[in-house]
User: Fold this.
Amino acid sequence: MAKLYYDNQADLGRFKGRTVAIIGFGSQGHAHALNLKESGIDVVVGLYAGSKSKAKAEAAGLKVMTVADAAKAAQVIMILTPDTNQSQTYKEHIAQHMTKGKTLMFAHGFNIRFGQIVAPEGIDVSMVAPKSPGHRVREVYTQGGGVPALVAVHQDASGNAMADALAYAKAMGCTRAGVLETTFAEETETDLFGEQAVLCGGVSALVKAGFETLVEAGYQPEVAYFECMHELKLIVDLFYQGGMNYMRYSVSDTAEWGDYVAGSQIINEASRASMKSLLANIQSGAFAEDWIEENHNNRPRFNKMRSADTDHKIEVVGRELRRMMPFVNPREVIPGQGGS
Assistant:
């Protein structure tokens, strides 16, 4: 049975007299820093020299330091830079300041799980991973709520690592919604699998395949876009509110019947075998090794695939249609600048 923690099981007093360094000020970084600050925590932001985020952080009333100075000044260091540069940032700017009694924190377990960062003895290593993009973490907090999160302890030198992690989660607003205890390995492996098999890889491939099937059969690309991408949000919102049962309750009986008879034709035993293969690659470290090597080589395959999908017909058609629908709050990404 999953173990959940709420507000009454976390004590903000654990951070009295302690400074928290937030390393990075991107999507998650800005949310963590501002939520903690407004919860009464002493926060500094660590950024590399020349960071464009410095002005934003200072405008928000936060103290900005270099990464090394922030790590030196703080008792708790939360690393919120992209997975791919955390190891280098840690080794070059943080490691020398991880003295006995300090706490090293993460919002994703990748670098600990795959051995890219190895913390010294005598420090606590923990994780608080909000299950939401940073802008949403911030938005919900300002509305008086919070997003759920995962919490884990990798190294408990003080004997208080979990209590401190829960205090951090409370300062984030996450214990208002509930914080689920896990491990670094479970969080990392399930997160990567979810991204690859369902949330990003699976859904993107399914949407493109559906679009291409209709267009190749002679249907208008605009109609195919609406059917295979635009309406997806309507279904996902129903999932989010009440699961598959609520989705099926909300759509027509014809759609529900199509769900039952067609779904297993698309996601079949071959699909499940591929999912098991993806999971095995994640668990063995093969995916991590490949991704780390890709970054060491300056991302040739990554950039080629990103470029190809930027110009996919469903994206070209979709951009034009979204420009005519301002109510969807359309966003356009400049090729080469999307994501980290």
Remarks:
- The longest strand covers residues 124-130.
- The two ends are 35 Å apart (CA to CA).
